[in-house]
């Protein structure tokens, strides 16, 4: 590969876990802070997410393991949806699944068992398929709303082709960061996250800022689903340009010096 050739982006997924504030106060989203030594966006607050692996693809192709999803770029077999569920479980501790017709809850007596599953995923001694089969679960692939698609700029040395999903936070579970790849986990309104970022005490990267902006002004999770269902998902691939001798990331329709 020539030095000027862009790196091929890795397939990846991320999840916006959302819940409603009391008395119609809007929504909160769960964000984790990447470890300061992370190879990708160190120290930044992001939505739980990561690369698609073969186990994710295999789980989507297994019979009766996943709930149905629409046709499209994240149809079953691509691995994007199970990757989103796995990363949500690994990084946020929330397993989006159903047992029969009931949304999965994790009561106190089951917390240790599911924490063990989470550790096994990290250690690569378990897969989402093996956990679902052992627990008699259907993975909630169909409950993920595909709402955004971003590809890292060609100029960057590490690139991701990431599909973003929205999911309501299930009752009967608690979100908590993993203490391995991440060092903090917070529930925040999109508006508060953006305000804190502007004040300099909540580090965010370009794509996350834009996504949080798209999540502002929502009264409920249902309103979020309505907003993003009404608009087709478009692929966003920012570019890096030079401005006053410094690299700046811009959206495709923004003007800048190349």
Q: What structural class is derived from the secondary structure elements?
A: alpha+beta
Q: Low-confidence runs (pLDDT<50, min 5 residues)?
A: none
- Rg, nearest Å: 18 Å
Shape category: globular
Give the proportion of residues in helices. 25-40%
- Kindly report the average pLDDT value: 91
Helix segment tally:
7
- SSE order, one letter for each helix or strand: EEEEHHEEHHEEEEHHHEEE
End-to-end C-alpha gap: 23 Å
What's the number of extended β-strand segments? 13
Which CATH top level class fits?
Answer: Alpha Beta
- CATH fold description: Nucleoside Triphosphate Pyrophosphohydrolase
Q: How many distinct folded domains?
A: 1
The fraction of residues in strands falls at: 25-35%
The largest pleated sheet is described as: 8 strands, mixed
The CATH superfamily is identified as: Nucleoside Triphosphate Pyrophosphohydrolase
How do you describe this structure in short?
The protein has 258 residues and is α+β, with helices and mostly antiparallel strands. The chain contains seven helices and 13 strands.
Give me the secondary-structure topology.
Layout: E1 10-20, E2 27-34, E3 45-46, E4 49-51, H1 54-61, H2 80-92, E5 97-99, E6 102-103, H3 111-122, H4 128-135, E7 138-139, E8 145-151, E9 160-168, E10 182-188, H5 190-199, H6 206-214, H7 221-230, E11 235-236, E12 239-243, E13 246-250
Parallel strand pairs: 1-9, 8-11
Antiparallel strand pairs: 1-2, 1-4, 2-3, 2-10, 5-6, 5-7, 8-9, 12-13
Helix pairs in contact: 1-2
């Amino acid at each position: 590969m020539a030095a000027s050739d862009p790196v091929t982006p890795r397939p990846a997924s991320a999840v916006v876990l959302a819940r409603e504030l009391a008395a119609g106060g809007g929504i909160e989203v769960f964000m984790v802070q990447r470890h300061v030594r992370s190879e990708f966006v160190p120290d930044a607050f992001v939505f739980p997410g990561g690369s698609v692996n073969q186990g994710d693809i295999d789980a989507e192709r297994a019979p009766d393991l996943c709930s149905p999803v629409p046709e499209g770029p994240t149809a079953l077999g691509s691995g994007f949806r199970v990757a989103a569920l796995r990363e949500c479980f690994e990084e946020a501790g929330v397993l989006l699944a159903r047992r029969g017709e009931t949304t999965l809850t994790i009561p106190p007596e089951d917390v240790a068992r599911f924490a063990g599953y989470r550790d096994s995923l990290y250690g690569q001694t378990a897969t989402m398929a093996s956990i679902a089969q052992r627990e008699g679960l259907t993975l909630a692939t169909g409950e993920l709303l595909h709402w955004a698609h971003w590809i890292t700029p060609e100029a960057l040395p590490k690139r991701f082709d990431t599909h973003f999903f929205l999911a309501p936070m299930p009752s009967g579970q608690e979100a908590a960061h993993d203490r391995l790849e991440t060092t903090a986990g917070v529930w925040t309104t999109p508006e508060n996250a953006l305000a804190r970022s502007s004040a300099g005490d909540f580090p965010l990267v370009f794509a996350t800022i834009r996504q949080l902006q798209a999540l502002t002004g929502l009264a409920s999770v249902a309103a979020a689903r309505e907003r993003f269902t009404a608009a087709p998902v478009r692929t966003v691939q920012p570019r890096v340009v030079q401005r006053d001798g410094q690299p700046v990331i811009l959206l495709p329709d923004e003007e800048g010096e190349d």
